[in-house]
Queue: 2 jobs
Job 1
Amino acid sequence: MLKKLMLVVAALVATMNFAFAQVDVNKADAAALDSVNGIGPAKSKAILEERKKGEFKDWNDFQQRVKGVGEKNALKLSAAGLVVNGKGKDGAAVAAGTPAKPKAAAK
């Protein structure tokens, strides 16, 4: 019984780490891009096609070159774990696994 419980806990931890992994748009393959919530096969194909022309410099470059990725969508993708050159989009919700800023104490 204890072994089964430990196995379940280990599987849960492994799944959580996979789900919170960041995916760099300049390094990821189609499968990794597809794993980001909000990116499907068509969008990952568009990203890879644009990346053939050169790496994305920053989020603005990414948004200009990939059709259908506007400000709102970029914020959602960043919150889901997509990064450009290791950086999330400014203003995006805190991605899972990233420590949040502490809240001010209530008076």
Job 2
Amino acid sequence: MDLEQIYALHFNDLYRYLYSLSKNHAEAEDLLQETFAKAHIALLTNDIKEIKPWLFKVGYFTYIDHFRKDKRYVMTNEFSISDLNSPENIVVENDAYNELLRYLDYIRPIEKQAILLCDVHDWSNEQAANILNIKLNTLKSHLSRGRKRLREMLSQEES
């Protein structure tokens, strides 16, 4: 499979994941471009069997590298998705997604990553553990703790 096919197949999913990390459209596009540049170089010399999990892993580490370089975190309220849904549904979905991202900012970063990969982007626990470079049981612990903290925050807000 050539890079253009890989790009066409995985562009949207990888962009949404990088956007959920950076919360900035321009930054997510930059990270996406850098991720595919790294992927191009790696694919010239290596034979990657499972492309999508590997791309997410490259994207995650690209984000980490970028975050460490900048030491800044930009928040934005903009989020756009092209969809055939009604405008009302799009607004509701965007608000719910942005609210989830806001709650995730209050839990530990590794728990946030685990929830984003497993619950938002539907990765299996094994794939998410591989992307984050941690053991499966460690991922399950972080998922459990993160979900528990989210439930606590939601119940406090309802009270």
